[in-house]
Amino acid sequence: MSPDEISRFLTEKRFDFTEFEPRIRQYWDEIRAYDHNPGAGLPILIDTPPPYANGRLHHGHGMSYTQLDIIARYHRMRAPTLLPLAFDDNGLPTERHTERKYRIEPGMHPPDFFELCEQESLESIAYQLRQFQALGFS
After folding, report:
1. With bands split at pLDDT 50, 70 and 90, how would you rate the model's confidence at 24?
2. pTM listed for this prediction
């Protein structure tokens, strides 16, 4: 997607985001806008509580992680190494999410309970990453 195409989309009277979003995301992938650049200087870590990997994001994530993304983009433009977003995928929130989903009584865990927790965490992380990308986060 060229800068002219982007301008055309943004100046139309009726903005069609359903056509624009997939194309701009593909463009960002092509130019590798989100790439982590190890070795480009001293590493930068933005210390913030990571999202729990126990389900879907909600509007509060969008609000608070927008601030994180603004800071991340600023540092990325200055070319240091920026450590990528992490997820909190252990502990009580993950266990409670798994108990609710599989209707397991708290404390009455089957032998494969922790494997179920790990599976739920990995699925939640993949889904949340897609949600963050859909929000345009870097």
Report:
1. confident
2. 0.69
DSSP 83: P
Q: What are 38's two structure tokens?
A: 């190890």
Nearest to 117 by CA among 135, 99, 131: 99
| Contact yes or no for 116/78 (Cβ under 8 A) | no
Round to whole Å and give the CA distance between 83 and 3.
29
Contacts of 107 (CB under 8 A, 6+ apart): none
Tell me: the pLDDT tens digits for 87-108?
Answer: 887 788 888 889 999 999 887 8
Q: Alpha-carbon distance 125 to 55, whole Å? A: 8
Concatenate the DSSP letters of all residues of 35-50 into one string: ---TTSSSEE----PP
Tell me how far apart the alpha carbons of residues 98 and 122 are, in angstroms, rounded to a whole number.
Answer: 12
Q: How many residues are given for the chain?
A: 138
